[in-house]
Amino acid sequence: MEHIIIHADLDAFFASCEERENPLLKGKPVIIGADPKNGRGRGVVSTANYEARRFGVRSAMPVSRAYRLCPNGVYLRPNFTLYEKVSGGVIAILKKYADKFQQAGIDEAFLDVSSAGNFEKAAKIADRIKEEIKRKEKITASVGIAPNKMIAKIASDENKPDGITVVKPADVRNFIYPKSVRKLWGIGPKTEILLNQLGIKTIKDLAEADTRQLKEKLGNMAEYFQILANGIDESPVEESYEIKSFNREHTFEEDTSRKDGILPTIKTLAHDLYEQAKLNKACFRTITLKVRFSNFETYTRAKSLSSHTDDEKTITETANMLAEEFLKTGRKIRLVGVRISNLKLGEMQKKLSAI
Ligand code: TTP
Ligand code: MG
Predict the structure, then answer these.
(1) What's the angle, vertex CA 213, arms to CA 208 and CA 219, rounded to 5?
(2) Per-position b or e across 9-38, b if 16+ CB within 10 A of its CB
(3) H or E segment and range at residue 25
(4) Partner residues linked to 112 by β-bridges
(5) Does domain 1-170 have CATH number 3.40.50.2000?
(6) pTM (predicted TM-score)
(7) Beta carbon of 13 within 6 Å of any ligand 1 atom
(8) Residues involved in catalysis
(9) How far apart are alpha carbons 340 and 315 in whole angstroms?
(10) Whether 192 contacts 181, CB under 8 Å
């Protein structure tokens, strides 16, 4: 059976959510991000709607620059609670249509729809998905349909906003060859510069480049990038959203109230979790400590950080801090557990490390 993958990506996501909540914004340039403070603001733009993009405003641009380009725009601080809610609604819709499903970000996902059988039927599914998102969530999505994830992702970006782009297997090369090498998985600004030094700008240039010369410049990644440049990506749609947290527990040989027994145990658990997170290329934002006393009374305490991290010391120190109130009681402890949750899984890095 041939592989058919859909990539769906919401259009100007944060801005679209704001427009949905406040229809008066429709038709105006809307910029989500830091406060521009009449042009003196620090911080960056998260996103801008398509009206604002006409003025040249883009994601990650300093908001002061955006303000110079578009002084009459509507500037809003992000409302993540709203975006999480809309995202959840959209994900629930998308999942229904997929044989296998992988959320790849707050506003994007891959759907394996191979069982549709052919690209015409997959395109009908995509139409239905777009229609249902519009009707239920009042925002638009752009969709790419292709034989693999990477091409599907490039395709979803082709006709934004509210677009649909089908790239059948026979059309893959024609579709990607003229595009910049930056469109390929894992090629960032640094690799792009190295490739440019070899005169390689388009994906076609890369596909046809001399592999030996490429290897001298890029090392082991060279062959992988050339495989991608040929439109080949065999990474499966992984249901990584299933992983919600990582958890480690330890039951003491003998119940103990001793700090010098409990804290080193927490340190070991933290280290194991760190290793597990690293293996999964996961960042976390919440650390939870569990304590069970001798009489089986069990307590949990959690702390969420202001942003995601993959730092081992953060796990240890946060868990230690959460343990303080229990250690202070002097009561005997039977079990300690540490959990990291609120995970963000690194799609791109995972792929690279798999090579
Ligand atoms: P994207 O899908 O990259 O962008 P978008 O949905 O705003 O626009 P497009 O129509 O081109 O898909 O990112 C999704 C959201 O993630 C975006 O609405 C805001 C947030 N984001 C940032 O906060 N900073 C950034 O640099 C980027 C790229 C996105
Ligand atoms: Mg988007």
Answers:
(1) 105
(2) bbbbbbbbbbbeeeeebeeebbbbbbebee
(3) none
(4) 5, 100
(5) no
(6) 0.72
(7) yes
(8) 108
(9) 8
(10) yes
What gap in Å lies between CA 302 and CA 91, rounded to an integer?
Answer: 27
Indicate if ligand 1 lies below 6 Å from the C-beta of 156.
no
Tokens of residue 30, six digits: 């809307």
Residue 79 Cβ contacting ligand 1 at under 6 Å: no
Pocket test for ligand 1, best of 59, 154, 156 (most atoms within 8 A of CB): 59
Q: Is 52 in the pocket of ligand 1 (CB under 6 A)?
A: no
**Residues by chain with Cβ below 5 Å of ion ligand 2:** 9-10, 13, 107
The CATH homologous superfamily to which domain 245-354 belongs is: DNA polymerase, Y-family, little finger domain (3.30.1490.100)
* Per-residue model confidence (pLDDT) at position 281: 79
- Tens digit of each residue's pLDDT (9 = 90 or more) over 36-83: 999 998 878 999 999 999 999 999 999 999 999 999 999 999 898 899
Between the CA of 108 and the centroid of ligand 2 the distance, in Å, is 7
In the DSSP assignment, the letter for residue 93 is H
Distance between Cα 181 and ligand 1 center (Å): 21
Band of residue 134 on the pLDDT scale cut at 50, 70, 90: very high
Indicate the burial class of 354 (C-beta count within 10 angstroms; 0-12, 13-18, 19 or more): exposed
User: CATH number of the domain at 177-229, out of 3.40.50.1010, 1.10.150.20, 1.10.220.10, 1.10.260.40?
Assistant: 1.10.150.20
**Beta strand extents in the chain (DSSP E only):** 5-10, 30-33, 45-48, 74-76, 100-105, 108-112, 141-146, 164-166, 245-256, 282-293, 298-309, 333-341, 344-345
Atom number, ligand 1, closest to the C-alpha of residue 45:
24
For ligand 1, the distance from its centroid to the CA atom of residue 17, given in whole angstroms, is 12
Q: What is the mean pLDDT of residues 156-184?
A: 98
pLDDT the model gives residue 353:
38
> pLDDT for 210-264, tens place per residue?
999 999 999 988 989 999 999 999 899 987 555 678 888 888 889 999 999 999 9
Q: Are 56 and 68 in contact (CB under 8 A)?
A: no
